[in-house]
Amino acid sequence: MQYLHTMVRITDIDQSLNFYCNLLGMKEVRRKESEKGRFTLIFLAANDDEATSSEQQAPELELTWNWDPEELTTGARNFGHLAYRVDDIYATCQHLMDNGVTINRPPRDGHMAFVKSPDGISIELLQKGDPKPSQEPWASMENTGSW
Ligand SMILES: C[C@@H](O)C(=O)SC[C@H](NC(=O)CC[C@H](N)C(=O)O)C(=O)NCC(=O)O
Ligand code: NI
């Protein structure tokens, strides 16, 4: 068995592509429109995953946008988060914060941070390799989550 993707529903394509692609660096790999079902599917891959060998498809994030407006609750307790490994957690969090994203759990320990997507999906960011030495403003920044 091979892990293929995780699907999350979104309320706004532009806001979601700005967050996942422009800010987090993911790439759109394909898109499917359904006139009958009145929805759009957009498949994203993390940039490092593009290097995965062709026969081992990179795990993807499937964004589902239903054309008819719907309110998305923040989901049942059984869904936790999407996790990504980043080269520089401080630089990633700074770029997100500079573009208006709240750093719910700052990378105080140089290892782990949490943010949320425009639709409230929890995103865990983990530092590649060893944790970076603690630095400001992250060391003294308060959590806004329950982490
Ligand atoms: C392409 C493949 O990866 C899919 O996941 S298609 C699954 C299908 N999706 C939809 O019908 C999208 C629109 C629908 N209104 C929705 O919001 O899901 C489907 O069966 N979805 C049901 C589900 O629970 O995933
Ligand atoms: Ni799917």
Structural features, described:
- This protein has 147 residues and is an alpha/beta fold.
- The chain has two domains: 5-66, 2,3-Dihydroxybiphenyl 1,2-Dioxygenase, domain 1, CATH 3.10.180.10; 80-146, 2,3-Dihydroxybiphenyl 1,2-Dioxygenase, domain 1 (Roll), CATH 3.10.180.
- Helix content is 14%, strand content 32%.
- It is built from two helices and eight strands; from the N terminus they run E-H-E-E-E-E-H-E-E-E.
- The chain has helices at 13-23, 89-98, and strands at 5-10, 27-34, 39-45, 60-66, 82-86, 103-105, 112-116, 122-127.
- A four-stranded mixed sheet has the order 1-4-3-2, covered by helices on one side. A four-stranded mixed sheet has the order 5-8-7-6, with helices on one face.
- A hairpin with a 4-residue loop joins strand 2 and strand 3.
- The model has no long low-confidence stretch (mean pLDDT 91).
- It binds the ligand C[C@@H](O)C(=O)SC[C@H](NC(=O)CC[C@H](N)C(=O)O)C(=O)NCC(=O)O and nickel (II) ion.
- Nickel (II) ion binds at residues 5, 7, 62.
List the helices and strands and how they pair.
Layout: E1 5-10, H1 13-23, E2 27-34, E3 39-45, E4 60-66, E5 82-86, H2 89-98, E6 103-105, E7 112-116, E8 122-127
Parallel strand pairs: 1-4, 5-8
Antiparallel strand pairs: 2-3, 3-4, 6-7, 7-8
This protein binds the ligand C[C@@H](O)C(=O)SC[C@H](NC(=O)CC[C@H](N)C(=O)O)C(=O)NCC(=O)O and nickel (II) ion.
The site of nickel (II) ion has 3 residues, from strand 1.
